[in-house]
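Here is an idea for our session: we take a single protein and study its fold together. To get us started, please write out a protein record for me. Start from the sequence, derive the backbone structure tokens from it, and show both lines together. Go ahead whenever you are ready, and we will take it from there:
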Amino acid sequence: MAAPSFMFSTLLLLQLLFGLLPHHRTLIFAADDNWQLLQKSIGISAIHMQLLKNDHVIMFHRTDFGPSNLSLPNGKCLNDPTDTVLQVICTAHSVEYDVFANKFLALTVQTDVWCSSGAIMPDGNLFQTGGFNYSERRVRVFSPCRTCNWNEIPNGLMVKRWYASGRGQFNYEFIPKNIVANKTNLPFLSETSDKGIENNLYPFVFLNIDGNLFIFANNRAILFDYVNNIVVKKYPMIFGGEPQSYPSTGSAVLLPLKNLKAAAIEAEVLVCGGASKGSYLQSLKGIFMAALDTCARIKIIDLNPEWVMETMPLARVMGDMILLPNGNVLLINGASSGTAGWEQGQDPVLSLVLYRPDNNIRSRFEVQNPTIIPRMYHSTAALLCDGRVLVGGSNPHAFYNFIGVPFLTELSLEAFLSAYLDAKFANLRPTIITPKSMSGIRYHKKYMIQVAINSNKVDESSMSVTMFAPAFNTHSFSMNQRLLILGNDKVTEVGNSMYNVEATTPRSGNVAPSGFYLLFVVHQGIPSQGIKVKLY
């Protein structure tokens, strides 16, 4: 099956019994990670976030929240008679953040982007779809350039799409409209909708290595051939049947793809956290049930796949899961009780958790140092090319609210620095000399990456090339997030602390869709700063 160069809109992009029981673990705490406060306020609450190829991050909020704390450029105002709060809008609801300058500027988003979706296209443009009210059929495009702003296509979608696939829209479509101009029914979406609650919005969608889509909603998943509109495989329900899709919001990742030269590449999905059955309705009454403390992991290409359950050190709902360049997974943001929704979550989880997927099942979790800023409903996170994780957002209220509430609308930006960024590892950290950033690389080709490592304890066998696809993050899911571990074919010392690392790129667009990636060289678990490459 050919690799997709379009966005699947539903995503938007769109053992034995003992083995199924939760595995408990030894609790481990980290000591070398830390936090940076980057901006006390960017003027808006970042409930959607996307890193672009120029190391700028686009963030935006809903436009019908009333005035933000950031004026539109040059004193301009927008007239929007459809806005339910202000028909004359003079403040910004989108910003562009320059990562290395640590500066931001206001952008002009023209329609309501609340609870929408997005994906980076192969040319590096951000395609962003749907929204609220009269904006549910909008497609918006942002091109990374010095003077660019949002461009909008009024009826770019066939149907209204609010909350990614769309509330009550049990179907999918493609953009751009170069495949088919019609929507196609997907009964799985109606089958996973709980009456009066839903529990299947923002489904977790991953491109499998065979070109089919793994789609998870509520508490179960399918493997879907989107070309022929056929369900290839139905996966068993997660043990216990607890809901893990919005508003009982868990999170999920496709674990790093490795052994890429193998005839059959192993693909695993990890789903963590969420809310117990009944939590949503109870939270409407002011009763906040404990969040789930489980993760479920499944090998999606196995002939008879089964979920393997693990127990997290901290329960978490509305959390995010971010792939790190060394292959670990970061669990961040969220609450320990309640669900997603206005005023429906309590007890913020301030501590992060690191998950090491290659460790023994009982030693995969490690608690990280906490933030002091609660990040609950409508929080975001994104990996940056220097290995930091950018964190923003959190607004559990229907409007901007800064007084008289336990959890304020949060306008700040932070960065989490994983332990691999500690200064004590500086001599182990590779510096990429060549290729230069923004180079083009082709499928299934061998390339040489030259690095400098100023250490007398270089372990050539530990060097590994990794590639990360930046994700569109909102509502506890990083759409299109992907990490490929190329390893190394050969490492050659060339003198003066320089090493040539040879690695082979992925073999097809099913393994790695075309587009721009962050490329890292990892040495003894310590990643270099990433460079941008375009895979085609």
